[in-house]
Each structure stands twice: as C-alpha cells, then as structure tokens.
Amino acid sequence: MKDKVVNGLFWKLLENGGAQGIQFVVAVILARLLTPEEYGTVGIITIFIIIANVIVQNGFSTALVQKFEADEKDFSSVFYFGLAAALVMYGVLFLCAPLIAQFYGDPILCPLVRVLGIVLFPGSVISVQTAYVSRKMEFKALFKATMGAVIISGAGSIWMAVEGMGVWAMAGQQILYYFALMGGLFLDLTWKPRLVFSIRRIRSMFRFGWKLLCAALIDTLFSNLYGLIMGKIYNQAVLGIYNRGEQFPKLIATNLGAAIQSVLLPAFAKEQDDVNQVRNMARKAIQVSSYTVLPMLIGMMAVADTMVLALLGERWLVCVPFLRIMCVAYCFYPIHITNLQAINAMGRSDIFLKLEVMKKVVGIAGLLIGVQFGAIVMVSIKAFVDFVCIFINAWPNRKILNYSIGSQWKDMFPSLCLSIAMGLIVYGLGQFIPGAWLRLAVQMAAGAAVYVALSFVFHIESFTYLVDIVKKRTGRI
Predict the structure, then answer these.
(1) Mean pLDDT rounded to a whole number for the chain
(2) What DSSP string describes 362-412?
(3) Whole-angstrom Cα distance, residue 264 to residue 278?
C-alpha cells in the first residue's frame, strides 16, 4: 500500500505541477489580452456552473472511492445517473440565464450561461472516470489526459483572445478542457460504461453521498458568495481584480490539495480498520504538503508586486493586496483537505456535514461584517475565517485518529518557520535589485536556494523524504 500511495502521489503531483505550470503561462498571456471587466463577467458565470456541477455529481464520486467494494454495476449506474442529473441542471441553467443577465445588468451573461453550461455533461462523466482512477490508483493515465487537456484548452483560448473574442476566449478554454479531459480518459482507461443500471446501488451510495452533497453544496455556495456579492454590490471590474488576485495562490494550493485528496482518500479508505495506519498517513500528508505549499505561497507574498508587474502588467497592480491576502488564506488548505479526507475515509460523512455547517455559520458572520467596509476588508476577514476553520476541521480527528490540532501544528511548524525566514530574505533582497524581470528571477532563484539550504542544515524530515522519492522514481524511469 505504501508503494502505491507514493507512486500515486508522484504521478498526481506531476500531473498537477505540469498542469499548474501550463495554466500559469496561459493565465499570464490571457491577462495581457483581456480586461478586468471581461474576467469579472466570466467569473460570475463560472460561479453558477460550479454550483450546478456540485449538484450533478451528487457526492457519488466520493462514495465510489470510499465504498469497500465497487463493481461495474456501481460505476455504470453512477455514470447514467450523472448524465441524467446533468441534463436536468442544464435545463435549469438554460431557463434561468435571462434572469441572471437581468440581475447583473449584462445581456452577454445569458448566452454565456447557455453555452458554458454544456460542460456539465463531460463534468459528470469525468467525476466517474476520476473515481475509477483514484480507486485503481492509475494516476499516470490521469496525468497524460490532464496534460493534453490543458495544452489544447490553453492554446485554443489564447487563439480566441488574439482574435478578439473577449469573454468567449475564457469560456472556450473551459469547454475545451472538459471535453479534452473526458476524451483522453476514455482513450486511456480500461473502464467503459456498460448497459447496466441499478437504482438499488444508487440509493445505497446516496445514503453516504447525500451528506457529502450537502456539505459540498454549502461549501461551494459560501466559497463563491464573495464573488457573487462583489459582482453585484461593487462591479465586474472589482470581481475581475479579486479573481486575478486569488487565481495564483488558489492554483498552487488547490492543485496540491487535489493531489492529496485523490491519493489519500482511497488509501485511507483501504486502511480504515487500522486507525494507527491512517493517523501515520495523515501525519505524513500534513508534513509533506506543508513543506511544499507554504514556501510557494509565502514566497509569492514576498514577490507579489514584482510578479504582477513583470507577468501581468501595470494595470493589474491593483490586484496585489488581494493576492497577498489570499496567499495567507490558502496557506493551510492542504491541512483542511487531509483532515476532511480522513473523516470521509472513516465513513463519517455525518461529521463532515456538521463541520461544513459550523464553518459556514462562522463565515457568514464574517461576511456580514466585512461587506460593510469594502472589498479588501471583506477578503481579509475571509482569510481570518479560513484560519479559524483549521481548528474546526481538526477537532474531530483528536478522537477519530487520536491526532490533535497541537500535534498537527507541531508537524507543520518546521516548514512554516523555514518559509517565513525564506520569505523575509526574498522580500529584503528585492529592495536592492532594479528591473521587474531581473528582480523576479533573482528573488525566485534565491528563495529556492535558501529554502533547500535551510532544509539541509536543519535536517527537515520532509526534505529527506521527498529527495528519496525523487531518487527512487528517477531510478525507475
């Protein structure tokens, strides 16, 4: 099991790292071709698509992975049920599109919703395919399909933006990505849907999945509430600036979080009868993910103004405060994911749902306070709420896994100290170097060198662990 987890995590991190790199380049190019208003317009639509996608997936993909034994009938039943749910939700979006456009006072939103809504269909298929990948730990197939999808969608969106298609360039990027990913997985995976369907299997999985659906829906609605409010109370330009500031830290944290989630849930689920083993795996996940994500986000905070000026241009400098705040908010995202996946794997979706309700009560209270003082204060309070939620997510695992929040902070603390030290050095260095591009290059190189050197000097366990994994993998390739 340990080799499978390491192998799976290797391919998943490689997939997310490669995709992240390509998406970063595409985002930089698009930011120079499109305006904040255009980003805000698509940002509004994407919120509604994400919410609909959560409903379509119904928590079944997690139920497929968590189920002790899942066979062909389970996968095919979820496949057909998901397509039916996608059809219903697309119909709802199609009918509501004029109302959305009227609410935000922008006629272009109506056709955008109707066109972009078609991603619900490949999205429902992909959720079953990725559940199969996670269960079988065939992450190499997902790596190849994802890389193909981000290249195709990135190239297509850049071409559309160059041709002056504006908001349709970003809509096209999402559509191309979903269909390319679905097609790539169909070509590479041995699993294909069969003509079998069991409503009894659907009901059985729904008993576990409905709680995850409610939790995911609550989380998605709340996470996107900030965007909905900004687009309405302020304007689409402010929403576009916020989205751009959030995009880069979110890209790092959620890609790593997705890698952890995809690999750890099936690994935890297979060891759910051995609490000690699950606790040890959770500890390693927090140590390694903190060691990886904290230096990237704290380093991004240190070089934020230089990075935005060099990569996006002067007109996007207004997003720097949002970027720095969201770096703080996402710093502890992998810890959230690890705790929640451990709870899911132990079959406690009831606790998962209760946690989401508690966190959203705290979050809504913060939102009601922050919205009165402007966008910056609202987002700052969001970052503080995310920090508080670490303690809420970790609380159940002190009993379930005998893994307290104090122990989790202890596992994360060395990486946090090294990252802060590196960030201070990088920020100070930037005060003496002229030219945005040269300054950014020197800061990034110095940051990486300082972090590795400190890891070596202080004998950081995660550093040694990752070096050993790389040596083993490169020895096999």
Answers:
(1) 84
(2) HHHHHHHHHGGG-HHHHHHHHHHHHHHHHHHHHTTHHHHSS--HHHHHHHH
(3) 9
